[in-house]
Automatic annotation (TrEMBL):
KW Acetylation (keyword) present: no
Upper lineage: Bacteria, Bacillati, Bacillota, Clostridia, Eubacteriales
Subcellular location, principal: membrane
Transmembrane segments: 7-27, 47-70, 91-111, 123-143, 155-176, 182-202, 308-334, 340-358, 379-397, 435-461, 467-489
Cellular compartment(s): Cell membrane
Membrane topology: Multi-pass membrane protein
This protein's UniProt keywords: Cell membrane, Membrane, Transmembrane, Transmembrane helix
Example of a GO cellular component annotation carried by this entry: plasma membrane
Origin superkingdom: Bacteria
Protein name: Uncharacterized protein
Length: 510
């Protein structure tokens, strides 16, 4: 019951926080575009992606250490918790300085990543250095929040992070309107990164005062051996993940142009806003799943997985249909019709979004079960397919080629290997039922999307208020259709969530 309660609190906190985040992010981005223009918007997006690539030095150490905390926390083994956190601190302090060093070495060559006229941009090297500084500072003390997350209390870190994020954006917007100064905008970002680290560090000390007491203890040999094994596997996961998620802007900037980076990332910000929400929701239950798996049979874990996988489809189905039907109208209203991309690009982008999002339940259980070693080479294959196909097609098909590269990496690598590894090593089962469900879900969603598009096509979006009207229509229609599909395909899982919802309402009423 405690696990369910923690998961529910974490999920609610994640949903509310990310909803606020979506609103403030797009207001901030709109004002950024108005005050600083398309070129700086593209540079901001490009440098963000370059720093994401530099996070490769972390090598997946974080998830491996978080996994190693599940058992000691469940058993209240304070000695081992203190020992693990001492190692965590040492490694992340080193990583912060490594990021700073790599960034300084890369700064003189930063212009070589940009195609297009940037003569109007002053202090390009200083701008990149400030990005590097912010990324470097994010490693100092930030490791402490992962102890709170592993202890099933992620809602605490969510409150701190998004509270400060909103405050930061309000201040950045004020600075942009008053001064149009990109340097000050970045300095504010650095200050809030440091502030978040300090506040979470203080909170962790209050919640776990015994960390000082056990900081000189040694990590158990079994835990250390398992941790090293997971880190070795996660190196490949990290490399592959960076190649897929952080290279698109670089390829677009090099082969197409820096302005196109800004246009494309407007769309990506929409899908990423929902991707972050989905990630937050599923990561909010990861520690609870890890705690459950440590005390349950494979059959019991599989029963829970089926419920989570169904929820994954329900969530991704409604959001994907809404994004597909509304994203072009949203971009036109918020950023202007001159920032629109073709419908083919939109179709491929939403397909990529759906395929990525449907991995959430798989990845949650893989992480909770510590299944890293078994598919350690998958991310390398994923990254290689993405890079090769994107680089070959980008000069000829531009954005379409880049998106085809990412879709191919999912279609030919992830879709087959991830469920195979989880089912075989986590549940002791074959994957036939998974692939049948995936295919049926996708085909039914295409039908839902077609009907929703048809029913909403009569609404002409000429203002923000008409966009809201269309969003309500699309949301209601898509949710209704997917619930009907659910009653046909997954009646058992649907009734489970309906019963859970009724219990929550009844408890609130008491």
């Amino acid at each position: 019951m405690e696990r369910t309660r923690n998961s529910a609190i974490n999920a609610v906190a994640a949903t509310v926080a990310q909803t606020i985040n979506i609103v403030i992010t797009f207001v901030s981005r709109r004002i950024f575009l108005m005050m600083l223009g398309e070129t700086l918007l593209g540079i901001n997006s490009l440098f963000t992606q370059i720093l994401s690539m530099m996070s490769l030095v972390e090598l997946g150490i974080g998830p491996a250490i978080v996994y190693s905390l599940y058992k000691p926390l469940a058993e209240n083994d304070r000695e081992q918790i203190g020992a693990i956190m001492r190692l965590y601190k040492k490694i992340y302090t080193i990583l912060g300085f490594v990021i700073l060093g790599i960034g300084l070495c890369l700064t003189p060559f930063i212009k070589s990543f940009i195609t297009g006229d940037i003569s109007s941009v002053e202090n390009i090297y200083l701008i990149f250095f400030l990005f590097v500084l912010n990324s470097s500072f994010s490693y100092f003390n930030s490791y402490k929040q992962n102890l709170i997350i592993a202890d099933q209390k992620k809602y605490i870190t969510i409150i701190y992070h998004y509270g400060l994020y909103v405050a930061m954006n309000v201040l950045q917007i004020a600075v942009l309107v008053a001064t149009k100064n990109f340097i000050l905008y970045l300095v504010i970002q650095i200050i809030f990164t440091l502030l978040e680290n300090v506040l979470l560090s203080i909170k962790t000390k209050k919640m776990y005062p015994y960390l000082k007491e056990y900081k000189d203890c040694k990590i158990d040999e079994g835990i250390m051996k398992n941790m090293k094994r997971n880190v070795k596997a996660l190196v490949f996961h990290k490399v592959g993940g960076v190649c897929v998620s952080s290279t698109d802007s670089l390829i677009i900037s090099k082969f197409i142009g820096i302005v196109t980076v800004g246009m494309y990332t407007n769309y990506v910000y929409v899908t990423n806003a929902f991707s972050t929400l989905i990630t937050q929701l599923f990561s909010s239950i990861t520690s609870s799943v890890g705690n459950f798996n440590a005390q349950s049979t494979q059959e019991e874990s599989f029963e829970v997985f089926k419920k989570v996988y169904y929820f994954n489809f329900l969530l991704m189905g409604v959001i994907s249909v809404c994004v597909y039907c509304l994203i072009s109208d949203f971009i036109a209203v918020v950023f202007g019709e001159n920032m629109l991309l073709s419908q083919l690009v939109v179709t491929l982008l939403v397909l990529k979004f759906y395929m990525t999002g449907m991995r959430s339940s798989l990845l949650t259980f893989k992480e909770a079960m510590g299944i890293y070693h078994e598919d350690r080479f998958r991310p390398l294959a994923e990254g290689l397919v993405n890079l090769v196909v994107s680089i070959i097609l980008a000069p000829h098909l531009e954005l379409v080629g880049v998106l085809i590269g990412t879709i191919c990496s999912h279609l030919f690598v992830n879709m087959w290997i991830e469920p195979l590894v989880l089912y075989r090593n986590g549940f002791g089962r074959k994957t036939a039922s998974y692939f049948i469900s995936y295919t049926v879900y996708l085909l039914s969603l295409v039908g839902v999307c077609a009907v929703t598009m048809l029913l909403s096509s009569w609404i002409a979006v000429t203002s923000f208020w008409m966009l809201i009207v269309k969003a309500v229509v699309v949301g209601v229609v898509s949710l209704t259709l997917i619930i009907i599909v659910s009653l046909i395909l997954n009646k058992k899982e649907f009734l489970y969530y309906l019963d859970l919802f009724k219990k929550i309402i009844k408890r609130r009423a008491l």
